[in-house]
Amino acid sequence: MDISQEAPSERLKTLVATDPDAIDGYLATLSGAEVVRAMFRLESAERHAILRVVEPETAAEFIEDVPDEVAADLIEALPVEDAASIVTALPSHEQADVLAEVEDEDMDRILGAMAPESAREARELLGYDPESAGGLMVREYLAFGAGATARDVLEELTSGVRDLSPTLLQYAYAVEPDGTLAGVVRTRDLVAAPPESAIGSLMKRPTAVNAEADLATVDACLEESEVLSLPVTDDAGRLLGVVEREHVDDALVERASDDHLKSQGIVGGEELRSMPVAERSGRRLSWLSVNIVLNMVSVSVIAAFEETLAAVIALAVFLPIVSDMSGCSGNQAVAVSMRELTLGVVGPRDALRVWWQEAKVGVLNGLALGVLLGLAAWAWKGNPALGAVVALALALNTVVAVSIGGTVPLLLKRLGADPAVASGPVLTTVTDMCGFFLVLGIATLALGWLQPV
Amino acid sequence: MDISQEAPSERLKTLVATDPDAIDGYLATLSGAEVVRAMFRLESAERHAILRVVEPETAAEFIEDVPDEVAADLIEALPVEDAASIVTALPSHEQADVLAEVEDEDMDRILGAMAPESAREARELLGYDPESAGGLMVREYLAFGAGATARDVLEELTSGVRDLSPTLLQYAYAVEPDGTLAGVVRTRDLVAAPPESAIGSLMKRPTAVNAEADLATVDACLEESEVLSLPVTDDAGRLLGVVEREHVDDALVERASDDHLKSQGIVGGEELRSMPVAERSGRRLSWLSVNIVLNMVSVSVIAAFEETLAAVIALAVFLPIVSDMSGCSGNQAVAVSMRELTLGVVGPRDALRVWWQEAKVGVLNGLALGVLLGLAAWAWKGNPALGAVVALALALNTVVAVSIGGTVPLLLKRLGADPAVASGPVLTTVTDMCGFFLVLGIATLALGWLQPV
Fold first, then answer.
1. Is the pLDDT of residue B269 over 70?
2. Same domain, yes or no: B163 and B230
3. Is B386 in contact with B377 (CB distance < 8 Å)?
């Protein structure tokens, strides 16, 4: 399979150098996934050359298939006219998503080079949070006055004039002269209705979502109404667009994956290796440099116990283990809390209940891990007191770690911080400090039993 | 908002104790998300009591909304007759998903208590990987002989006899007498066709997916054909079912979130705090105990340098920092590789290219972090040699960490292992060993400059 995948990128390399006009035709023979894979195997100069020579529609199809931040990077690197025609060729909800990730200055230049009407629509959509109903909606839909007949709707539907997705063809919306959404009709019900009946007499009360509604709310509404799309309205009830389940699901997949990357310190939740090295390095470093300062804070606990360490040098071996194992236990609790937050099973107010459920697991796992490490320490140095010190320290710190890991995401959420980004650093800093303090503090108390006689 | 959410679980507590017959009616007034949140706020005994008294359809709606592993746990705890009626009430593709997570013994008992026809269908679906086209498909669809007329199809469609989802109503499939899929017709095209025309004359060649096709393939096919559902066939081309984009998207969201949990050592990728404590503890511990053994292996490097440590006790402070920072840098690279694997931008054969792209970032970030740590060490002990040792060690180990972090997921994938589970432990073990060796090895060489005169 991999061997056959090797070919398209090589072919593109050849075409870009020898026969650029043939690229459009060649890309049309590949699947979307093949185009993405092939394009990312090229050098960035080749990728730019291709985006400049192909038709804007071809470029837009590729841009649609890559994450928004990557799309923005690709677009920014192009001359502004090329960028503007590609953005214009994108579906309306994608335009705003990509432009939102472009630097403000470039965004203004690109919007300036677009047709005024397209630019105005894109600016309007840019006003919405990309994860809100307004940010996810498309502006294309079937809308009629309440006096239009079933025949009118079916004629427009079957004429093929309107290039709507299969989902958007399922519903027609009845709209008042002032733009207020009055009702919704399933187009398949129109088939069975008398051709001259007015859609005002066939329509049902619509379930609509407000343009400001967030991703979870839109998802829940779609789930509840068991429909494939919902009309989006403003506060006055005017129809603004339609949000499709497909785009909501895409946003949910994107968010789950972003959270994973953010939790590992990929700022913004998005990186592909096709981005410039300096940018990749800088984004990762911004998180790492916060982390290294936090690390220095936690190891200051070790520095305070230098005498104990000098007396029992073997303790130095156990500090990284206690730090790493507590971090692992705590991160498991963080991951479960993030999952439960996403599922809506817990909210910020459940911190106490979550703590209690984590504490129980912490005691069991702390005992098991503590005994294991204690026995290993005893066996290594033949000193049962050393075993007892590290066993007790790891057991206690495991309880601390899961307690913090379980509750910190909920508390961060309550404070309005992004739990995916901040939970890890908060967790490891506190558990490291506490773990070092427990190992060295207990060792200091037990110094008489620890030192060789 | 949280205050109003408090009510349903309290209400359910009261109803289960005083008026169990009213629970069905009460649950019907709540949204799916509200039911899930309320149910998970109850004690497990209360949850079971509710699942036993409500109608199987009500229970099935709730079971559908929770992750499969959790659903399986809930089902297993019920008497087998209750479990069987709830499973029967689930949509066909959900039945197999939930049963696949149930213990084998319980699965046989539940299937034994189901109606023979339902049990046979569920067993058939259980034969497929839950993330394959066969595992995702539903068995309900509109199929006709090629001789059926447009009128026949539209009559069945508008009769409302078939309770199909809006997606499934969009296509009718023409099937040969032996079950082979012959073609597909869009139901909305039938509206415009002469009522007596045979669907054999209207149908198009269908794009079908094989039942064994994996999630990525099915997703790519849906993406390419721009349809909401695809027919699923066996190797002989016989129509087995229909896979809907909605279920594929759900599976993708589930997988992204599972990968995140697995990478933190939640075995199986699924845990909710409603599961029994012993089970939660055991699953987490199985990963932690592998990790602690790997940790002992890595710190054995420190043990081998006890003399150097005894001579320069300040080094003990830097070992956890180098270990933690290298782990962070490496995990960023792992996260980006996991993301690129999911997007299909890289494959196992791209390891060398990925390594080179990571190495560049590693050199930049290693220098930045090394200099930062080195200056801190110099400032703390007033010893520039100490600063130089830790700076060099951290810089080199950062390059090692991102090289391993970027390539290990690709290599694990090639070996057929799950990169989400195994990348972290492999990464931290190797980078810890290497980091400890670099700090203490370089320090041993530079011992003359490090020791106080």
1. no
2. yes
3. yes
- Residues of B whose CB is below 8 A from A66: 343
Evaluate whether ipTM surpasses 0.85: no
Helices A56-65 and A32-40 cross at an angle (nearest 10°) of 90
pLDDT digits (tens, 9 = 90+) for B140-170: 888 888 888 888 887 777 666 566 776 777 7
Residue B125 belongs to domain spanning: 2-129
Could you tell me if A311 lies within 8 Å of chain B, comparing CB atoms?
A: no
Does residue B368 sit at the A interface (CB-CB below 8 Å)?
yes
Whether A108 shows a pLDDT value over 50: the answer reads: yes
Number of separate domains in chain A: 3
Domain of A163: which CATH number? Answer: 3.10.580.10
CB contact under 8 A, A428 and B324: yes
Tell me the residue ranges of DSSP E strands in A139-282.
142-144, 171-175, 181-186, 209-210, 229-233, 239-244
Of A127, A156, A185, the residue that ends a domain is A127
Q: Does residue A136 fall inside a structural domain?
A: no
Residue B270 located in a structural domain:
no
Residues B290 and B167 in one domain: no
In the prediction, which pLDDT does B253 show?
79
Please indicate, yes or no, if residue A267 is contained in any of the structural domains. Answer: no
In a domain, A268, yes or no: no
Q: B411 and B303: one domain? A: yes
Residues in chain A: 453
Residues B125 and B158 in one domain: no
Mean pLDDT: which of A261-270, A430-439, B264-273, B329-338 is highest?
A430-439
- Is B167 within 8 Å of chain A by CB? yes
Distance in angstroms between the alpha carbons of the first and the last residue of chain A = 66
The angle formed by the CA atoms of residues B211, B247 and A338, to the nearest 5 degrees, is 125
Name every chain B residue with its beta carbon within 8 A of the beta carbon of A350: 41
User: Model pTM?
Assistant: 0.79
Pairing of strands B142-144, B171-175: parallel
Confidence of residue A419 (pLDDT cuts 50, 70, 90): confident
Interface of B with A in 249-268 (CB under 8 A): 249-250, 252-253, 256-257, 259-261, 263-266
